[in-house]
């Protein structure tokens, strides 16, 4: 028995020593000291403590790179050009890079560790992205899993953006989520109102940011956002418009419709809006109002699985299938532009349908909600 106890003590001691050694080694190895970051060949330089991700490092310097997934490496948005200091392309980056991007040194900033001097190039307009302090003025419940958050700007007091763009919202640490995270949300409000923004958000089960918004954020609380970002906006042409969206994908399209009304754009437009059940429908009356106010706008809500016994008499099935059948009857569908917003699966399906109908790929504009 004594031998067994001695053996246990020795093994425990060796384990504790190794654990201590690993902690010590980690601290030494990850102590990279001060590291210089050079942006756009000297346009901006700063020195930081090494070891963090490039995305995190830039964010801490109030340089905001677009990222829809909060730095988890799942959206592929946070691309920067690295001239020096990033090492080899990581397996986590490869799915998001085409051959040209690899040749040009494009990398995902959330996956790169700042370990030594690093030189990068980013679009100049990202250096002018602002951070905004807001007050949550109002929270509107649309459905069981969809809310609208009306944010009033406090500092600065106004924002200018292109209808269709998005912001990044900071979810602070809360019980169950020990770290701050950013998530991207499209602006849904009337762009004529520069003193505030509205966000339409769908709850993601166990989502860090949506849990904060749905369960912790209260009216009159302070919210921090930065932006605007994105290239999803209405092109300045006379082409007929096809909008296809699902769920919270209605947000940027609603913003664009406000813009069309404000600027008296008279282009023909049809909006296919897909939801699962009639309980998921919202903003229907507002869309009907746009039908009255815009020159040539048609709103077609689509319910994929109407509840048994529901009083639904509108379009049913997949929103992309309904859109396809409708568009096949249009004599000049190939002249249209497609604006798509929603889940990656819905958008991929819609892109294929538009291409099959003869709409060139360079007339497909979309915003994937990942």
UniProtKB/TrEMBL annotation:
One of its GO terms (molecular function) is oxidoreductase activity. Residues 33-126 form the 2Fe-2S ferredoxin-type domain. It holds the Pfam family NAD_binding_1. Keywords: FAD, Flavoprotein, Iron, Transport. Residues 129-235 form the FAD-binding FR-type domain. PANTHER family: NA(+)-TRANSLOCATING NADH-QUINONE REDUCTASE SUBUNIT, NAD(P)H-FLAVIN REDUCTASE. This is Oxidoreductase. InterPro entries: 2Fe-2S_ferredoxin-like_sf (IPR036010), 2Fe-2S_ferredoxin-type (IPR001041), Beta-grasp_dom_sf (IPR012675), Cbr1-like_FAD-bd_dom (IPR008333), FAD-bd_FR_type (IPR017927), Flavoprot_Pyr_Nucl_cyt_Rdtase (IPR001709), FNR_nucleotide-bd (IPR039261), OxRdtase_FAD/NAD-bd (IPR001433). SUPFAM superfamilies: 2Fe-2S ferredoxin-like, Ferredoxin reductase-like, C-terminal NADP-linked domain, Riboflavin synthase domain-like.
């Amino acid at each position: 028995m004594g031998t067994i106890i001695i053996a246990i003590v020795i093994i425990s001691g060796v384990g504790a020593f190794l654990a201590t050694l690993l902690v010590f080694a980690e601290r030494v190895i990850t102590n990279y000291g001060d590291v210089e970051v050079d942006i756009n060949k000297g346009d901006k330089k700063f020195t930081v403590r090494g070891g963090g991700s490039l995305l995190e490092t830039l964010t801490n310097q109030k340089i905001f790179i677009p990222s829809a997934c909060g730095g988890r490496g799942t959206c592929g948005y946070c691309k920067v050009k690295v001239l020096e200091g990033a090492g080899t392309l990581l397996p986590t980056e490869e799915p998001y890079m085409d051959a040209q991007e690899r040749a040009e040194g494009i990398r995902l900033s959330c996956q790169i560790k700042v370990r030594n001097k690093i030189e990068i190039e980013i679009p100049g307009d990202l250096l002018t992205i602002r951070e905004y302090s807001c007050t949550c003025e109002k929270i509107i419940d649309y459905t069981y899993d969809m809310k609208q958050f009306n944010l009033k700007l406090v500092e600065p007091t106004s924002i200018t953006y292109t209808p269709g763009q998005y912001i990044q919202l900071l979810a602070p640490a809360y019980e169950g989520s020990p770290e701050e995270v950013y998530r991207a949300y499209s602006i849904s409000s009337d762009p004529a109102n520069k003193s505030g923004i509205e966000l339409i958000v769908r709850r993601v089960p166990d989502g860090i940011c949506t849990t904060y918004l749905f369960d912790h954020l209260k009216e009159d609380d302070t919210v921090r956002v930065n932006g605007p970002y994105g290239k999803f906006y209405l092109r300045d042409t006379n082409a007929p418009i096809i909008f296809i969206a699902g769920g919270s994908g209605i947000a940027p399209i609603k913003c664009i419709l406000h813009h069309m009304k404000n600027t008296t754009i008279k282009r023909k437009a049809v909006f296919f809006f897909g939801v699962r059940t009639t309980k998921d429908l919202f903003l229907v009356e507002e869309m009907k109002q746009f039908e009255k106010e815009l020159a040539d706008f048609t709103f077609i809500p689509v319910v994929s699985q109407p509840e048994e016994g529901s009083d639904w008499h509108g379009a049913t099935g997949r929103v992309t299938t309904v859109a396809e059948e409708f568009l096949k009857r249009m004599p000049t569908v190939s002249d249209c532009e497609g604006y798509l917003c929603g889940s990656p699966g819905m958008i991929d399906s819609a892109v294929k349908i538009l291409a099959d109908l003869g709409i060139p790929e360079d007339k497909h504009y979309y915003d994937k909600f990942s």
